[in-house]
Amino acid sequence: MAGLIKHLLQNDFVRFLVVGGSVTTFHYVMLVVMVQIFFVRPWIATSVFMFVGALLTFTFNAYWSFKTTNKKIKRLSRHAIVSAIAWVLNLLFMLLLNEKLGWNYMLVQIMASIVIVFMTYFASKFYTYAELET
């Protein structure tokens, strides 16, 4: 079993999912806390934690998922662009489906997360953490 886990963790997509899954779990817990306990509107709460998540995912993906060691500032600016696109997508999901149509905010967040995970993986692999010219 340990050999299987070690083998799986050699794949950057699996490492990306571990990082993203951990950050997403934190995001969901904080989203529920903000909405249910502090009565913050879901689109505001999720926007705040998308920003926090962007900082966390950059750090963990740079050092572990894609194992980059150079040009962190350029990669951070690329990550900021990808994160901004993900934030807009997430916000659109929440505003349209939760605010306008009244769907459950957690269902909407799960749907948005499914779309965003694939968009951000491919953007991260082929743009943010791609080999950079010197």
Which SSEs are present, and which pair or pack?
Elements: H1 2-8, H2 12-37, H3 42-65, H4 72-100, H5 105-128
The tally of beta strands, per DSSP, is 0
In total, how many domains does the architecture comprise? 1
Shape: globular
Rg from C-alpha positions?
16 Å
Task: Summarize the helix and strand pattern as letters.
Answer: HHHHH
Strand content: under 5%
Chain-averaged pLDDT: 92
Low-confidence stretches: none
Q: What level of helicity do the residues show?
A: over 70%
* Main sheet specs: none
Head-to-tail CA distance between termini? 41 Å
Tally of individual helices? 5
Write up what this structure looks like.
It contains five helices and no strands. The protein is an all-alpha fold and 134 residues long. It has one domain (2-128). α4 packs antiparallel against α5 (105-128). The longest helix has 29 residues, at 72-100. The model has no long low-confidence stretch (mean pLDDT 92).
Please summarize what this structure is:
The protein has 134 residues and is mainly alpha-helical. It has one domain (2-128). The protein has helices spanning 2-8, 12-37, 42-65, 72-100, 105-128.
Any key phrases for this structure?
5 helices; globular; mainly alpha; 134 residues
